[in-house]
Design goal:
Blueprint (H helix, E strand, L loop, with lengths): L1 E3 L11 E8 L5 E2 L5 E4 L7 H5 L25 E6 L4 E6 L11 E6 L5 E6 L5 E3 L4 E10 L7 E6 L5 E7 L7 E8 L4 E11 L7 E11 L12 H8 L5 E4 L3 H4 L22 E3 L3 E3 L5 H10 L3 E6 L20 H16 L5 H8 L10 E4 L7 H17 L4 E5 L7 H13 L3 E7 L2 H6 L13 E8 L5 H16 L4 E6 L3 E3 L10 E3 L4 E3 L1 H10 L5 E3 L1 E4 L13 E5 L4 E9 L5 E5 L5 E3 L9 E11 L4 E6 L6 E7 H4 L1 E8 L2 E4 L4 E2 L7 E9 L4 E6 L2 E7 L8 E8 L4 E8 L5 E8 L6 E8 L16 E6 L4 E3 L3 E8 L1
Parallel strand pairs: 2-45, 4-16, 4-24, 16-19, 19-20, 20-21, 21-22, 22-23, 23-24, 25-26
Antiparallel strand pairs: 1-45, 2-29, 3-28, 5-8, 6-7, 7-15, 8-14, 9-14, 10-13, 10-15, 11-12, 11-14, 17-18, 26-27, 28-43, 30-33, 30-35, 31-32, 31-34, 34-40, 35-36, 36-37, 37-38, 37-39, 40-41, 41-42, 43-44, 44-49, 45-48, 46-47, 46-49
Bound molecules: alpha-L-arabinofuranose.
The site of alpha-L-arabinofuranose has 12 residues, from loops.
Length: 790
């Protein structure tokens, strides 16, 4: 017994007839209830200047050249004295508000009746809205005998007053002063102005620190809170968990930059600020307590990622490990975090949590140790010490290991094998790949060993924000859900990116100070997360449209260098006459006038770079089209040798990059052997094989269907991705379900190339009803979810 829609062959013959059979009577495969979560890292100004509601940039005058070479304690601030030269601002460190944030600014007027002001530009301006109110606060102290006052103004770009308030008497001790500024007109780029006026007789000196301005309307109305619209957009993803604080931020660039949770809780001045690995500053205004609170507010489980006692492998000179004799303390720090999250209020760290205003435990269930670390001896040692201690004391926790930055290669293999040996619960693997790769790998997890650790796909994304990217991710998520017994958690990365402040594209949600711009990829995540199940059901698809990638017909060669002078000599394709070319800052690329239609070919050439810090690349195959190969020398700031496949315009690593730096003035001998138009590629550098890749028959599954049952709500969700240009008419048979005559339908559809970073999504999911007595029409380039009672 079951539901069956009409025959797919009825009606419009331009539609591809397809049948989807869902066995809703089968017990199905269990799916983790926590499968879909989010990855939050302070990258792309996600925290400071982003989700964190603070509107003042560099509020404690602790920016420095560690953050960015040109930054200093007054970055973000300017000084105004009236009349000119009537005052100055200096920086001091003696007797600060808190030693962790040593700098403060002193405003000094030297001429009676003069005034001196400090002006903060915010993060690309301060956005204030008509009718809004903003809580200002500052630590201030007077250094003069004369009475000292502080004026606070919000002014627009032309200096016109928007709102003001005053503190008529500043004492001789550090004290906190606060008040609310109410705004009666909107301004996207306001400035905060702090002014000290001289008394009539004498100059005045006032120190200020932690100059802060928050909207009173933060998410959940919290002080030290989060920007409401961004937090709401995140909450609407319905994440079951939040991974934080990274990513690379978690293990840091060098030991001093490692994220240490205890440094991030308590009063703001006593948090240890740090530079951000992504090239800016971490105020730690969002610290562990705020992360836990946010998770709680949005109904997501916290998933902290702690450094495995080693810092990022991209640290200059390689990863460094916490010294052996400091490891016991570090292990204790990890155990203390568990107590901080879950311990009773009479435990040391449970009491600290209660003191911060949260006596109830935070219900920590997951803990990840390490992020994309180099799986070498020192990593193994540090990881195992942490792991065994936490495992011994907290067998109730699900512990997560790490397996490198890529879904293949040495760290992936080593990471997995190490995790298997230790019987770690889950392994955090990462996949930043092209849509082509995702469509070729929808069955990747089918073959995973059910007897070993489960998978946490902790970071993934398909290198773009077009509809094709969104569909690749939708389909891959269906593949994970179908394997929900082994893939237990997954989170797209990165989550947020501020327009013009971005280090990593693509992302899920773009924003500026006024707007929130969810991408098509965001809507895919949301659709999946709002149609969850506890069991995946067997589904059979017949007759779905096939996708055939046009083969690369003619092969040629081109070379390029983004910012380097490189001479290429002796270029031969299958023994053609030798050709030479040079690229420099102006002529950044050159296509050689050579070509072959042979399936097998060999390219030889020499390259010599005479200037530039970044390297060069040799493209081969159909170099004029969107699909070809690239052998790149000196990728990632001249640190790797990489072989890429470029598919649909997206670059994707064909193999794990090899550590390598281009040496200036050195002549390199390059040889590329291609068989079967790229089925096998062998690259030789100075006569030595450095890459040898054989690709299996690439089959891109551009049409797929899966189904899940949600026993809590008694619903079956049928999910269909059609990433082809064919409209499909499908008969849908759902066995084991009776009575349902209709389904609610949600569809996201757009042309394959529509959608881009930093732009509003070209489409949003559209809801409708679907009559189950009719065949179901599935649009080209669409993601559809049909939900029916079962
Ligand atoms: O998501 C951005 C970065 O990608 C993460 O910080 C890191 O883990 C990965 O390499």
């Amino acid at each position: 017994m079951g539901i069956e829609t009409g025959s797919a062959t009825e009606g419009d013959s331009s539609l591809t007839p397809t049948s989807i059979v869902v066995d809703a009577g089968a017990p199905g495969r269990p799916i983790s209830r926590d499968l879909w979560g989010i990855f939050f890292e302070d990258i792309n100004y996600s925290a400071d200047g982003g989700l964190y509601g603070e509107l003042v940039q560099n509020r404690s005058f602790d920016y420095s050249a560690r953050d960015r070479p040109e930054w200093h304690a007054l970055t973000g601030w300017s000084v105004r004295a009236e009349p000119a030269d009537s005052g100055e601002v200096t920086l001091r460190t003696e007797d600060p508000v808190a030693p962790q944030s040593p700098h403060y600014a002193v405003l000094r007027t030297s001429v009676p009746a003069g005034s001196v002001a400090l002006v903060n530009e915010g993060f690309d301006g301060i956005n204030v809205a008509e009718g809004g109110s903003y809580r200002f606060s500052v630590y201030a102290r007077s250094f003069s005998d004369a009475p000292a006052a502080l004026r606070v103004e919000l002014a627009d770009e032309d200096g016109e007053l928007i709102a003001d308030l005053g503190f008529p008497s500043v004492s001789g001790q550090w004290e906190s002063y606060e008040g609310v500024l109410t705004v009666d007109r909107s301004c996207g780029a306001a400035r905060l102005v702090l002014t000290v006026d001289a008394s009539a007789e004498v100059g005045v000196e006032v120190g200020v620190d932690f100059v802060s301005l928050f909207p009173t309307d933060t998410f959940a109305g919290e002080r030290n809170g989060l920007r409401r619209d961004l937090a709401e957009a995140i909450a609407e993803l319905k994440p079951r968990f939040v991974r934080f604080p990274g990513g690379c931020v978690a293990h840091g660039l060098g030991l001093q930059n490692m994220y240490r949770w205890k440094d991030t809780i308590g009063e703001l001045p006593s948090r240890r600020q740090n530079f951000n690995i992504w090239g800016y500053h971490q105020s730690m205004g969002i610290g562990y307590f705020e992360y836990f609170r946010f998770c709680e507010r949005i109904g997501a489980k916290p998933l902290p990622v702690l450094a495995a006692g080693v810092c990022c492998q991209n640290t200059e000179g390689g990863p460094q490990a916490i010294p052996d004799d400091e490891m016991d303390d570090y292990v204790q720090e990890v155990l203390d975090l568990v107590e901080f999250a879950n311990g009773p209020v009479d435990s040391l760290w449970g009491a600290r949590r209660a003191e911060l205003g949260h006596p109830e435990p935070f219900g920590l269930e997951y803990l990840a140790i390490g992020n994309e670390d180099k799986v070498n001896a020192v990593f193994r040692n540090r990881f195992e010490r942490i792991y065994q201690a936490v495992r011994g004391k907290h067998p109730e926790l699900t512990l997560i290991g790490t397996a490198g930055p890529s879904p293949f290669g040495d760290d992936y293999e080593q990471g997995w094998s190490f995790a298997r040996d230790l019987a770690v619960d889950l392994v955090d693997e990462h996949s930043y790949k092209s849509p082509k790769w995702f469509f070729e790998n929808l069955d990747r997890f089918d073959a995973y060993d059910r007897g070993g650790p489960g998978v946490y796909l902790g970071e993934y994304g398909s290198k773009g924000n077009t509809m094709l990217n969104a569909l690749a991710e939708a389909a891959y998520m269906m593949g994970m859900e179908r394997n929900g017994d082994i893939v237990r958690l997954a989170s797209y990365a990165p989550l947020l990116a501020k327009v013009d402040r971005t280090q990593w594209v693509p992302d899920l949600i773009y924003f500026d100070n006024e707007r929130v711009l969810p991408s098509l990829n965001y809507y895919v995540q949301q659709m999946h997360a709002t149609a969850v199940g506890d069991h995946s059901l067997p589904v059979t698809v017949t007759g779905g449209p096939q996708f055939t990638r046009p083969p690369q017909r003619e092969a040629s060669v081109s070379v390029r260098a983004a910012d380097a002078d490189v001479a290429f000599t002796g270029l031969r394709l299958n023994g053609s006459e030798p050709l030479s070319a040079a690229v420099d800052a102006e002529t950044t690329s050159f296509r050689f006038p050579v070509g072959t239609e042979d399936e097998d070919y060999t390219i030889t050439l020499q390259a010599c770079q005479t200037r530039g810090d970044e390297g060069f690349a040799v493209a081969f195959g159909d170099v004029d089209g969107p699909d070809h190969f690239e052998w790149s020398f000196g990728t990632w700031k001249n640190r790797f040798l990489s072989l890429y496949y470029r598919a649909d315009g997206d670059l994707d690593e064909a193999v794990e990059p090899i550590p390598f730096s281009v040496e200036t003035d050195r002549l390199y001998d390059l040889e590329i052997r291609v068989l079967g138009r790229g089925r096998r590629i062998t690259c030789l550098l100075d006569g030595v094989v450095v890459h040898d890749v054989t690709s299996p028959d690439p089959i891109e599954e551009r049409f797929s269907a899966t189904a899940v049952r949600d026993s809590d709500t008694g619903t079956v969700h049928v999910k269909i991705v059609n990433a082809t240009d064919r409209a499909v008419r499908t008969s849908l048979a759902i066995t084991g379900v009776t009575g349902a005559t209709g389904a609610s339908r949600t569809t996201l559809t757009a042309p394959p190339g529509a959608g881009a970073a930093f732009e509003p999504a070209p489409a949003v999911p559209v809801g409708s009803r679907c009559d189950l007595s009719e065949p179901v029409s599935v649009e080209p380039y669409s993601f559809t979810i049909l939900s029916l009672p079962a």
